[in-house]
Fold:
Amino acid sequence: MKNSPNNIIALSFLGLLLCSCWNQNDDPKPPDQLPPYSQIGANTMGCLINGRVFIPREHDLKGKYFGCHDDDLTMYIDRKGERVYIGIWDKTVTDTGAYDLTYKGTQREVYYLPPPYAPGFQTNPLHTGKLHIRYWDKQHHIMAGTFYFDAIGDDSSIVHITDGRFDMIYN
Structure:
């Protein structure tokens, strides 16, 4: 078989077509790397920190980072000295719905600590967020929902915690 100019052009065109269809970046987008939204007590939690995926190692979630008792809620993700923390202790966590994540001293604490527990970032009246409890089965002690917040550091830099989600069995 001879390599005619038409065959070479056709094969070149086919090669270019195949190369243009090949997706060189098959990695999932950061939100797709987070645990899925669920409400089955899967003991999963995660968020994005300035667009970067932040999830604990699986064994870090065995009940020690999530609690709801007497209408107070504490939850945090900790991984190698880096922490996202939400604490609401003003006896208002009574049902599903949205809860404000503004720092209020001994009643609410919402912050991000970069590793290894360096000066942190916390919410304030201008930099706040929301916790949405979307599912709460009080009989089986399952709570699931989403969260986000912006927090400010001592140097006025801001961290964005987004796409937060949790599906936890609490004590």
Q: What stands out?
A: Helices lie at 5-21, 30-33.
